[in-house]
Amino acid sequence: MTDQLSTTDAILAEISFDPAGLVPAIAQQHDTGEVLMVAWMNADAVRETLFTGQVCYWSRSRQALWRKGESSGQTQQLVEARIDCDGDTLLLLVDQTGVACHTGRRTCFYRAVRDGKLVTISEPAVDPADLYGG
Amino acid sequence: MTDQLSTTDAILAEISFDPAGLVPAIAQQHDTGEVLMVAWMNADAVRETLFTGQVCYWSRSRQALWRKGESSGQTQQLVEARIDCDGDTLLLLVDQTGVACHTGRRTCFYRAVRDGKLVTISEPAVDPADLYGG
């Protein structure tokens, strides 16, 4: 336990948190490569995610740890955490249960510029009312 | 030209730029799904990227438009631009020429947490000295 915490702290030391103590994290489905969402993590969220293997973000609106899927069941199991060259962005390879987006879509990136217009390219797979904002 | 500019402005209106007028953009190789890098764009960078089809960021360190690959030749051709549900992150599907990272690696995300340690998982494909910081 002590060893695990200290190696996690060594990893945290490589992350350049912004002045608010946050770092953006990209969640990518590990096998398909689909980019699912981007959210923020503070040191506690990183620590919890590495320790439990379940992705936990920091909710800027609620100012609280956001255990992804805790209320909705749409959890993200961590497959691998990566960090970029300057340490200011994380890439989380995950196994997404259900959908990542609060709109009920698999990915938050469901709008694309095509023929000069912003169009919706995927529809909800789950009724957002069933997600409880989780 | 006028039409193209006005539709671009309609797209810009959907982007939630931060207080500094910036939005993070993820570059992803369009066919392999590899996440290459994350950088920032301001409205001018978005406009130029959509207009030219060559990815242009905003360099926070240089406080100037950063035409990716202009000096290094490691350009990113835009395949499709996407935006997330709350409009505060862009996902750029690109065709990366050469390498995205200034270290000479294909991707900036070349360090991963494995067995509780941060390890390097890919080596440079290009000598960084040949990239001119571009």
Brief description of this entry?
The first copy, chain A, is an alpha+beta fold and 134 residues long. The first copy, chain A, has two helices and eight strands; from the N terminus they run H-E-E-H-E-E-E-E-E-E.
- Basic shape of chain A: globular
Give the SSE order of chain A as H and E letters: HEEHEEEEEE
Q: For the report, how would you describe the main beta sheet of chain A? A: 4 strands, mixed
Percent helix range of chain A: 10-25%
Q: Using only CA atoms, what is the Rg of chain A?
A: 16 Å
Query: How many helices of chain A?
Result: 2
**By helix and strand content of chain A, what is the structural category?**
alpha+beta
Task: Give, in spatial order, the strands making up the sheet with the most strands of chain A.
Answer: 2-1-6-5
> For this entry, what is the oligomeric state of its chains?
homodimer
**Low-confidence segments of chain A, ≥5 residues, pLDDT <50?**
none
What portion of residues of chain A belong to β-strands?
25-35%
Biggest chain pair contact, residues each?
Answer: A-B, 41 and 41 residues
End-to-end CA span of chain A: 30 Å
- Average of per-residue pLDDT values of chain A: 93
